[in-house]
Specification:
The chain is α+β, with helices and mostly antiparallel strands and 164 residues long. 24% of the residues lie in helices and 25% in strands.
């Protein structure tokens, strides 16, 4: 590997590590799964069957029913993984959800449509404040202080189940 590439990779890793620590450290029990109850507008961080934390959430602008197509304003339903972290999000921090999965893509394709994507758990918009309830394009939103806590607690690979 080229020396400049090695140094750049190392610096990027340090910067990302420092960025995640900037939003707090978490030394409690591992978050083994996340459950979102869309009807109750609640998200639970769990260690096994023990609820570690719960949060009030806002959802997509048309939250009833599962997400099927790009632009439908629905928050997905089903089981996915947290698959990425974004400290430089357009919102105050974000954790990516692995939507769409194979079944989601196949369903949308059967209607000649796209399933959409870029579904995240995130804080408030960086440029404005959200107005009203259920304002996202399909994401799960919490307050910024809560997002900093969630960002510190949740690792990539954590299972997330979104229920009606």
């Amino acid at each position: 590997m080229d020396r400049r590439l090695m140094i750049g990779t190392a610096l990027s890793a340090v910067a990302l590590s420092a960025c995640s620590q900037k939003y707090g450290a978490y030394n409690g029990p591992e978050v083994t799964s996340i459950v979102v109850n869309k009807t109750a507008r609640k998200m639970y961080l769990l260690h096994g069957t023990e609820v570690l934390k719960d949060y009030k959430v806002d959802l997509g602008f048309a939250p009833d029913g599962p997400k099927r197509f790009r632009g439908d304003g629905k928050t997905p339903e089903g089981t996915y993984l947290i698959d990425r972290r974004n400290p430089r999000s357009s919102f105050f921090l974000s954790l990516g959800i692995s939507y769409p999965n194979r079944q989601d893509r196949a369903f949308a394709a059967s209607y000649g449509k796209e399933p959409g994507g870029d579904i995240f758990i995130h804080g408030q918009p960086n440029d404005t404040r959200a107005k009203g309830r259920d304002w996202t394009a399909g994401c799960i939103s919490v307050q910024d202080k809560e997002m900093a806590e969630i960002y510190a607690m949740v690792n990539i690979g954590t299972l997330i189940t979104l229920r009606a």
